């Protein structure tokens, strides 16, 4: 949920007062700036049917059996895509049961399955299948999942995972992962959840604050059935859309995995249920995590020190993204500063190979309440003004997004702005729409704590629950300004990075370039002390990697030729965009891999060669003898 942003605006009070007088006298001239044309796309059609978008293509895929079309499976889809688990979506019971691993979504009540289907599900598990379900209340399914009673509630606030040996809890090893919140205590009404009274055949792996079971594990024959009380729509997607009930425990700068734990559960379920699993890893080049560098340049005196940060990063062999506020109208907050020598410095940053993103035009604290606007806003027509710290006139979401892009694209040779960050990290519901219709591809406007997510994800349109925009979100993990300032929080920041690297998640750091001393030293210290296996680099470059990874089409098939030793696999991949460093993880050590892939020393990770657009690659993988 929204919280007040804490990114402080710097005021130049005298200049502001003078300019307010000037403005009231209408002595302002149109700014002499180059603005590129930014076409505005018509509203995009709603997502296609997920059954068509995520088709069946190989036996190792997890089958997501979509039991009720009234609840879109985006929550589960986000979890599986984030974790690199192969899956398909189906409404066809028989097709789902041809796969060993089956997820039931969004649930099952008394009308969902016939008696024969319940028998077949039970037999599937007994014969070695793996079933992961949520929100099951149907009486005939009690025996399969191991509960005596199901209780629906809207008053639960917390979930605590048991420490134990069940393999699906493998990644929940920190206190922040052992207990997560569904809502802040102030909310009397919380998202709907199902809770259970377990029978003697099931183990309780997590419980709500009211004592009911929130996660059950039920062994049955050769297989196992898991039942999870909350819906992934509520514990994953609701958080990522920032429509949660303030479930986050902090706003920024701490490790908050409240939504990630549900992704990690599914990852561990897949890995423990599929003895020969293959997974698409989250980070490039076999790294455990990344520190993704970004800067906000949102003050007239922030441009010159930006070059000092660029120098430090160049020396460290890392790139970064500079988010530029294109302030061309003077108002109560400050004088215009997107002009003159600042533009020369900006062009120099770009010429040195650093990425440039938009940090809006006016950096309004009330941006989250702005109207979308008509989409016809241009430099010639758009004149927003801050009236005071909280209030503004004339601002629109389209205006902030479109005009800032047109100025960056117009003033910087070769620039095509595709990454946005809102001022004060305030996000209006219409931001995904405005961004995608203006040609943006990536956003970094939420904090990771606020959306309880340390993995990037597809930003839902209208911050809703059933439609995906074309924009990917990279939430801010660490920032510089919260007291006592990043220079005095480096050890805590490293601890957050360590926690995320244990999960394969990433860390976006935001450092304002208003201070080239303490903040610069803090960044140097972070880069020097990064934990083993954690890379550092440009946010925009990683965003491109992540999207290509997310859209990668891949399948694994066993080769038919039988012989001595384990059978070889064929890994087929295809990408629509160029991408480097894609890494696959294998359940068992490999004896060899061909096709130009590099086997890492643990022999369980392989880095693919650079992929060219629309040039499929087929790689033969030979597992080591057991
Ligand atoms: Zn800012």
Question: Describe it for me?
Answer:
- This protein has 16 helices and 31 strands.
- Mean pLDDT is 94; it is low at 1-27.
- 54% of the residues are buried.
- The protein is 25% helix and 23% strand.
- A nine-stranded mixed beta sheet has the order 2-1-3-4-11-10-9-6-7, with helices on both faces. Strands 13, 14, 15, 22, 23 and 24 form a six-stranded parallel beta sheet that branches.
- The protein is globular, with a radius of gyration of 25 Å.
- Helix 3 packs across helix 8 (232-240), helix 3 packs across helix 9 and helix 10 runs parallel beside helix 11 (340-351).
- With 626 residues, it is of the alpha/beta class.
- Bound molecules: zinc ion.
Key phrases:
626 residues; alpha/beta; TIM Barrel; disordered N terminus
CATH topology of the largest domain: TIM Barrel
- Gross CATH architecture of the largest domain: Alpha-Beta Barrel
What proportion of the residues is helical, as a percent range?
25-40%
Question: For the residues shown, what is the average pLDDT?
Answer: 94
- Count of distinct structural domains: 3
Task: Write out the strand line-up for the largest beta sheet, numbering strands in chain order.
Answer: 2-1-3-4-11-10-9-6-7
Cα-atom radius of gyration: 25 Å
The computed structural class is alpha/beta
The CA-CA distance between the termini, in Å, is: 49 Å
Instruction: Give a list of the ligands.
Output: zinc ion
Topology of this structure?
Blueprint: H1 13-24, H2 50-53, E1 62-66, H3 74-83, E2 87-90, H4 93-96, E3 101-105, H5 115-126, E4 130-134, H6 142-145, E5 147-153, E6 158-161, H7 175-178, E7 179-181, E8 193-198, E9 203-208, E10 213-220, E11 223-228, H8 232-240, H9 260-273, E12 278-280, E13 289-297, H10 303-315, E14 321-324, H11 340-351, E15 355-358, E16 385-386, E17 392-393, H12 397-411, E18 419-420, H13 431-437, E19 442-443, E20 457-460, E21 468-473, E22 478-479, H14 490-503, E23 507-512, H15 518-528, E24 534-538, H16 539-551, E25 553-558, E26 569-574, E27 583-586, E28 590-593, E29 598-599, E30 605-607, E31 617-623
